[in-house]
Specification:
By secondary structure, this protein is an alpha+beta fold. It folds into 2 domains: 128 residues, Creatinase/prolidase N-terminal domain (Creatine Amidinohydrolase, Chain A, domain 1), CATH 3.40.350; 227 residues, Creatinase/methionine aminopeptidase superfamily (Creatine Amidinohydrolase, Alpha-Beta Complex). Helices cover 35% and strands 22% of the residues. The protein is built from 10 helices and 20 strands. A 6-stranded mixed beta sheet has the order 4-3-2-1-5-6, sandwiched between helices. It has a 4-stranded mixed beta sheet with strand order 8-9-12-20, covered by helices on one side. A hairpin with a 4-residue loop joins strand 18 and strand 19. Helix 9 runs antiparallel to helix 10. The radius of gyration is 23 Å and the shape is elongated. The structure holds zinc ion (2 copies). One zinc ion binds next to loops.
């Protein structure tokens, strides 16, 4: 954790920002190790403080030993009071805040308490650090991914045409939990037939059916880190159209996985798959970006997607873990998406998820 704070301090110096108030839960956990549901961090050149309430005194001392604890008491000692004290003690005249993770009400309370301290937007700083994973994070992600791989591999042969999407989703969730997931990374998607045309469909009472595309998007969460995997299968032999579309998506995904490397612009990574799908005539049916980073959040940077004309795309760096998930969605018919996680390495990318990409199951 100490190393992460050191890297944040370097970024703060770069931005000429004396301190950052960290309010996003994932950022708080990333920097401090504290897993509680409430609390904020203040990181300056010389101080690392955790503000939280009485419920978390024992827990925070255990989980965030590098941070000095400042207790909030309700009523009596608000975050504003504690921050004003800290700012006075540290001589801070300017503090960055994570504007997209601070409610307007909280912001106003802090502003009112911090007389003479300027609050400025310090957006995305910790998020930027989090994009490149360290060894400990990669080890946890590998565990989450292995559990996800094992769960789907175990459940696919048990699926039957007369099962509902919701039943299948529950079987997948149980299988992940039995193998050590603390929770699903997100509500599991099982979308059969025409429902598979919706990239973020919710499982319902519709039956899996025979020969229909079934999109399954799932992931295990382990120690706060999220796996993310999509397979598209059919129960029984698929129609010729499914085979055609599946082959296009798979080839697009393989081209992207083969082409990822450090230094590649994220928009060019997206194009590795998109160009293939477009050339096959389905460009308009691939309505989302190629992928996203995963970590303490299920969706984080980098975003592998197109950028507007004239805008610059971020580039990939070694240590990033990103999804690679091209898809083709056709209203009334269904869809195909294939998603794996890849680790950007020194000279390419390593595909982390290993669940087979078989088409026919059950
Ligand atoms: Zn997914
Ligand atoms: Zn994803």
């Amino acid at each position: 954790m100490h190393e992460r704070v050191t890297r944040l301090r370097a970024l703060l110096r770069e931005r000429d920002l004396p301190a950052l108030l960290v309010s996003a839960p994932s950022n708080r956990r990333y920097l401090s190790g504290f897993r509680g549901s409430a609390g904020m961090l203040l990181v300056s050149e010389s101080a690392a403080m955790l503000f939280t309430d009485g419920r978390y005194l024992i827990q925070s001392a255990r989980e965030a030993p590098d941070f000095a604890l400042s207790e909030l008491v309700n009523p009596g000692r608000s975050l504003g009071d504690a921050l004003a004290e800290a700012a006075g003690m540290l001589g801070l005249r300017r503090i960055g805040v994570e504007a997209s993770n601070l409610s307007l009400a909280e912001y106003r309370r802090i502003e009112a308490a911090l007389d003479g301290v300027e609050l400025v937007a310090g957006e995305g700083l910790v998020e930027r650090l989090r994009e490149v994973k360290d060894g400990a994070e990669i080890a946890i992600l590998r565990r989450a991914i292995a559990i996800t791989d094992q769960a789907i591999t175990a459940v696919l042969p048990q699926l039957r045409p007369e099962m509902s999407e919701r039943q299948a989703a529950w079987m997948l969730e149980v299988a992940m939990r039995e193998r050590g997931a603390e929770a699903p990374s997100f509500p599991i998607i099982v979308a059969a037939g025409p429902n598979a045309a919706l990239p973020h469909a919710r499982p319902g009472d519709d039956l899996l059916g025979e020969g229909l595309p079934i999109v399954i998007d799932m992931g295990a969460r382990v120690d706060g880190y999220h796996a993310d995997l999509t397979r598209t299968v059919t129960i029984g032999a698929p129609a010729a159209r499914f085979r055609e579309i599946y082959a296009i998506v798979l080839a697009a995904q393989q081209q992207a996985l083969a082409g990822l490397r450090p230094g590649l612009a994220c928009s060019d990574a997206d194009a590795l798959a998109r160009d293939h799908i477009t050339a096959a005539g389905y460009g308009a049916a691939f309505g989302h970006g190629l992928g996203h980073g995963v970590g303490l959040d299920i969706h984080e940077g980098p975003g592998l997607r197109r950028v507007a004309e004239g805008k610059q795309s971020p580039v990939l760096h070694a240590g990033m873990v990103t999804s690679v998930e091209p898809g083709i969605y056709l209203e009334g018919w269904g869809g195909v998406r294939i998603e794996d996680l890849a680790l950007i390495t020194a000279d390419g990318a390593e595909q982390l998820s290993q669940a087979p990409k078989q088409v026919v199951t059950g």
